[in-house]
Amino acid sequence: MEWKVVVANTGEDSITFIDLKRNYKKENISLLSLLNRKENMNLYLDSQPIGPWDLVKGSIENKIYLANAYNNSIFKLDINKMEIEDVLVVGKYPTTIKYYNGFVFVLNEDSNSISIVDEKKFRLIENISVGDRPKDMEIYRPSEKIFVANNNSYSIDIIDIINNKNKRIKLSNNPIKLCLEKKYMYILSYSNGGFSDYSNISVFSLESLKIVKSLDIEGIFSNMVKIKGDIFFLTSLQDGHMYKMDLGNNKIIKKIYLDGMPNKIFWDGNKLLFITNISKDILTIFNISNNKIIKNIKVGSEPNGIVLIK
Q1: Has residue 286 got a pLDDT over 50?
Q2: Which pLDDT belongs to residue 1?
Q3: What are the distances in angstroms from CA 56 to CA 66, 125, 182, 264?
Q4: pLDDT tens-digit readout, 90-122
Q5: Residues 6+ apart with CB under 8 A from 203
Q6: Looking at residue 47, what is its pLDDT?
Q7: Which of 75, 177, 205, 257 lies 20 to 30 Å from 146 when distance is taken between CA atoms?
Q8: What predicted TM-score, i.e. pTM, was given to this entire model?
Q9: Same domain, 227 and 141
Q10: Which domain holds residue 236?
Q11: CATH code of the domain in which 100 resides
């Protein structure tokens, strides 16, 4: 299982595997079919969908963890045997999942909480309260702190994992996406409570815990990723474009039309971006070296989270 992209398809309760080494060969896997194969699975499924939203790779070989927004659960999935090993109920509407140092962290948007799960035992350890309507979460490994973007609270929560302390930083905008790099955190927000046609990118010092730069940019952006230097890529559900931005020079330097509603964006750390499109049901593979689309691949309905397996 090397060099495969896995996409969570929220709208049809499936995941799509795409093999980057075998001419983008793909396979759609129904999560319901996997559950039906599993005997004695301690999970109650009513008529509601599962809603796979985000996924992450942990430390255990061939295992990924899937956050299911509609079913309020996470799956432990063996991608070698292609089976669901276990299911754990977490908070309401889990939409972000991260891994760090033997633990799986799940951000529950409707419960205003983070669920912490022991990876090996696959047991819930505790739930930590955060602000109202959390939209994103990042873990800063050097200081072992969790940063949470609280959209409705106009704030960032900083959770000290070691000392079990929580500090809240108030903002003037609604944060929706965080990027961490070295001594700074980059915050994408909606401006003016989302009632204007502007977004905001703020640079937050992890040393002073203060915003050192704030830039309003025209357009409503749903996601962003920081690559090398001051270069960012942002997606817009509003106009179907992806934007390349030079934050150092405070300007958009390129606008790429992707059609539909491009949303989640993932960088492989080299030259490829992977972008899910929730209205076109495609995964776009984009080369940042020449700013060109390599391929659009049909996946499942309403694709969201992306993980790369090396």
Answers
A1: yes
A2: 46
A3: 7, 19, 22, 14
A4: 999 999 999 999 999 999 999 999 999 999 999
A5: 184, 185, 186, 187, 211, 212, 213, 214, 247
A6: 45
A7: 75
A8: 0.94
A9: no
A10: 221-296
A11: 2.130.10.10
